[in-house]
Amino acid sequence: MTVGADALATRPAARETIRIPVTGMTCAACQARVQRTLQREPGVQDASVNLMMHTAAVTYDPRSVSPDRLVEAIRETGYGASLAPPERSAFAEQEARDRAQAEELRELRVKAGASLALGVVAMVLSMPLMMAYAHVGMGTRTDPLLHRLTEWMDGALGGVLPWLYTVEPGLLAAGLMVITAFVMGWAGRHFYTRAWSAFRHHSADMNTLIAIGTGAAFIYSVVATVAPGFFLARGIAPDVYYEAVVIIIALILTGNLLEARAKTRTSSALRALVDLRPSTARVARDGVEADVPVESVIRGDAILVRPGERIPVDGEIISGESAVDESMLTGESMPVDKRPGDAVIGGTINRSGAFRYRATTLGADSVLARIVKLMRDAQGSRAPIQRLADRISGIFVPVVISIAIATFAIWFVAADTAPAVRAMTASVAVLIIACPCAMGLAVPTAVMVATGRGAALGILIKGGEALQRAGDIDTVVLDKTGTVTEGRPAVTDVVLASTGVLSGSDGEIELLRLAASIETSSEHPLAEAIVRRATEDGLVLGIPDAFVSSTGRGAAGRVGRLLVVVGNQRMMAEREIDVGPLAGAAARLAAEGKTPVYVAMDGGRDGSAKGPALSGLIAVADPVKATAREAIDRLRRLGLRVVMLTGDDERTAAAVARQAGIDTVVAGVLPEGKVEEIRRLQGEGRVVAMVGDGINDAPALAQADVGMAIGTGAEIAAEAGDVVLMRGDPRSAAQAIRLSRQTMRTTKQSLFWAFVYNVVGIPIAAGALYPHFGLLLSPVIASAAMALSSVSVVTNSLRLRRAAVS
Amino acid sequence: MSGVDWLVVVAGIAAIAWVNWYFFVAGNDRRR
């Protein structure tokens, strides 16, 4: 029993993570409120709510709280939530979100349209009412814009509907009251329910402002309708503001509609990726070919693809050749030649020939599904700059309510005529013009559009944080192999040492055969080049025994009874093998940008006990990528310092750097040395991006401020790196940095203007311009300004779709 | 300033104080 109790006591808390779709959130305050509510739930360890993706990611202890309770907690805040089926793929989730978005758009369209129509009716009906009390006190409409509009409408209406002016004012007011109550209760209902549930949770958001603003105007109007005598006795016109309430609601709904439409466009890149997935595949089973739904394809199925068709799932070509257009995934515009043994990616288009291939990865593991998931997670992630917006919107609404109350009191005391009316309209205008949404939308919309734009260019940015950091980079470190060079080195020369045991052309072949036999067990690109050349030359390779690989140096082992050591100068030095006899040849080859790989072996072919001695060297060259020079130029034009890191010796590195136009080179660096070098640069206060392949350079990519994994097509699965350059083109690094800088500029612009809008708009609504210019803003104009401010933020972010980054 | 004006000013100050207490102080207490 004691043991069991102890075990229970020391058992770590269980953790589970769930994603809950949330509906109805419109601004940063809504998102913050749902997040706070979830974080307060007992058993919840972490909760992160995303406004753009409409999801809550909750990490919780299943022993303390259930997923149903979490959904219930969200619903109690006034927002919609339901549990997503657990087996849902990234595709299904995106489709479900699209459906929900379409439904929301449809509802907003109906409500905004009907409210606008009723707003016009309300305005027409209120005209005779305004004129009826125009002789009492002074005109209360001091907004010049609205003043002109009412004058014009009054003139026009008197001509078209003269009978309207004969209707009893009380009756007109009662009619307006009914229309307004209907619009508030139907189209604007969610503003009030959400404001109330926020209030109960000691929170306030955009809905609070709208609810208080329109609610105050409505209550004032009801009092004026029911007891006009109370106002008339004090020399105040019993003006009603029903039409203002209806039009405010209509304009805000119209703003929400335009915003929702623009938001739909921000995720169009993701949707385009989801649409790449074909629905059927032509599968050959038991000698019969048939079109089957892509979901029923199983691993190992042979699939036939004809020219012009989309490749249904990932796989490997068995027979046939073709050129495949992978531009939709990698951004590479040229079709890629494919032969038997080559990998093809589901979603890409077969251009020229027909081929048969074997299905390999399916469903959630497929390249396309992984890209969709990566992008969805990235688009839903938060950039650090968002925290500033969150902090402001967290205190924004209560502060605005306070300003509105102060505005009311000041107007009531200071106004020379109709103080109550002035006070009411000014404070309602303050509540309505204030817009926390604009601040809340600036960052997530920009992140969403930029990640989508990146994907279209073959650049996968794994989140808002990476996007923001990439904008601050001042130093780019490029790994040589695979980044600056093709990463597919080839053997160019074989040189024998005059002091070695091998000689003549047969000796060269034997040197290559022995070296390749050792290198079959190594995964280094140089080793692969040697093995490839030996295989192409038809050499029969031996099986190495006692194989030892030394990272960044080389490998050694026995082929038969012969000890063979293959590696760089460092490897030879460690084994006290003199490379002097080939120093001249090595220097010459290195100056040509070729990497010398030394080969040493036991002094005698009979396996005598003598230690290994230098027998020759194999020169391997990795051609510089055609786009490398242009990429370096672009990086430099962005004001970045470019450094190349390589394990090669200095001469080879310098030759490659010269060809690529790089002037800072750090050569002879071991893989762990790359991390050190990046750390050193960071120590100098530099913000470093490392561009390298996602596997060999993973530690360096992780150490860098931004790790950019470079690969092509199917290799993009690389987990390492904050950014994946799918095209394998170093120019993408410059594009990624440029895109990131532009995104941050757009974000800062939006935040700045949203802030300025509120800082300027609120005092104007409060009547700051009245003492000097006699100008007051009507709540109707305030609502139009408010709607416009959020729409303009989303539109500003959408500009990133066309930003010049090349 | 009339009596009504004074009443509105005092009520306004009280309302601002309450709003700030309700959303910042009471809200935070509940969140803790």
Describe the structure.
With about 800 residues, chain A is α+β, with helices and mostly antiparallel strands. In chain A, a hairpin with a 3-residue loop joins strand 17 (about 545-550) and strand 18 (about 555-560). In chain A, helix 4 runs antiparallel to helix 10 and helix 15 packs antiparallel against helix 27 (about 730-765). The two termini of chain A are about 70 Å apart. With about 30 residues, chain B is an all-alpha fold. Chain B has one helix at about 5-30. The longest helix of chain B is centred in the middle third of the chain and has 29 residues, at about 5-30. Chain B starts with a helix and ends with a helix. The mean pLDDT of chain B is about 85. The interface of A and B includes residues 36 and 401 of A.
Provide a compact summary of the structure.
Chain A is α+β, with helices and mostly antiparallel strands. Chain A has 29 helices and 26 strands.
Give Rg of chain B in angstroms.
13 Å
Rg of chain A, alpha carbons: 35 Å
Give the strand order of the largest sheet of chain A, numbering strands 1, 2, ... along the chain: 14-26-25-24-15-22-23
Pair of chains with the largest interface and how many residues each contributes: A-B, 18 and 18 residues
Oligomer: heterodimer
State the end-to-end CA separation of chain A: 69 Å
Number of strand segments of chain A: 26
Structure classification of chain A? alpha+beta
> What's the total helix number of chain B?
1
What is the helical fraction of chain B, as a range of percent? Answer: over 70%
> Largest sheet of chain B at a glance?
none
Please report the distance between the alpha carbons of the first and last residues of chain B: 44 Å
What proportion strand of chain A? Answer: 15-25%
- Output the structural class of chain B: mainly alpha
